Amino acid sequence: MEQESLLRVVGLKKVFRSGESDLVLFENLSFEVRRGEMLAIVGESGAGKSTLLHILSTLDRASAGDVYCANLQLSSLSQDEAAAFRNRETGFVWQFHYLLPEFTAAENVAMPLLLREQTWQQAEPEASRWLREVGLEQRAHHRSGELSGGEQQRVALARALITKPKLLLADEPTGDLDGQTAESVFALIARLHREHQLTSLIATHNLSFARRCHRVLRLQRGRMEEIAPESLPA
Question: Starting from the edge strand earliest in sequence, which strands make up the sheet with 199-203, in order?
Fold first, then answer.
């Protein structure tokens, strides 16, 4: 039986005002993502990959078109409802980790639960569990500046997943890392995707990583096309 769609994108368009004219970043984007899929989004810098992920996570609004997540129409959500959707349904990992430097790794991971008004006593065991998941249990009490780039990104991944989201959105999650560290972080994302039955969308310049996803969508000159993962270089 074919898996149901978790995410459905219909006729999406994004226009930016540029001086006296409009810049159409993309238009008429339509695609579906089934539950459990790991989908890569590739394309040149400036093609709109980050903007697309921001729209899918309600951090930005489309100029036209709609996004449905588990039959919820995202464009109909108020600001408060969109914030609740992000906190409940999505985990986001950025190219830069955005860890809070004055807090420890454990405190950074726990932050989404603390924002839900859980106490530290409630949140700390979950933060420890997720640091164990990403192989950093021994670094729980280190501040972000004491961690390597790869460790910082692992902490960011644990923070993104502590709320048990259905949807993981990753924007160039290995873009700031050297080759070997990038490989280990991508392998971790793939393992967590599988073990926690996530649905993952990963914007990446790394075609070798994209090749290892279930499907690949290429955003180019405002249009989107699906390409076979095996057609990309290994």
Answer: 90-93, 167-171, 199-203, 38-42, 215-220, 223-227
Sign of the C-alpha dihedral, residues 103, 109, 110, 112?
A: positive
Per-residue pLDDT tens for 178-224?
888 899 999 999 999 999 999 999 999 889 899 999 999 999 888 88
Does domain 37-59+77-231 sit in CATH 3.30.450.20? no
Locate all alpha helices (DSSP H) within the chain, ordered by sequence: 49-56, 79-89, 105-115, 120-133, 149-161, 179-195, 207-211
Q: What are phi and psi of 31, to 5 degrees?
A: -165, 165
Measured in whole angstroms, how far is the alpha carbon of residue 215 from the centre of its chain? 16
Interacting residues of 162 by C-beta distance below 8 A, sequence separation 6+? 109, 110, 112, 113, 126, 127, 130
* pTM (whole model) above 0.90: no
- Report the alpha-carbon distance of residue 14 to residue 29 in Å, rounded: 10
Angle of helix 120-133 relative to helix 149-161, nearest 10 degrees? Answer: 120
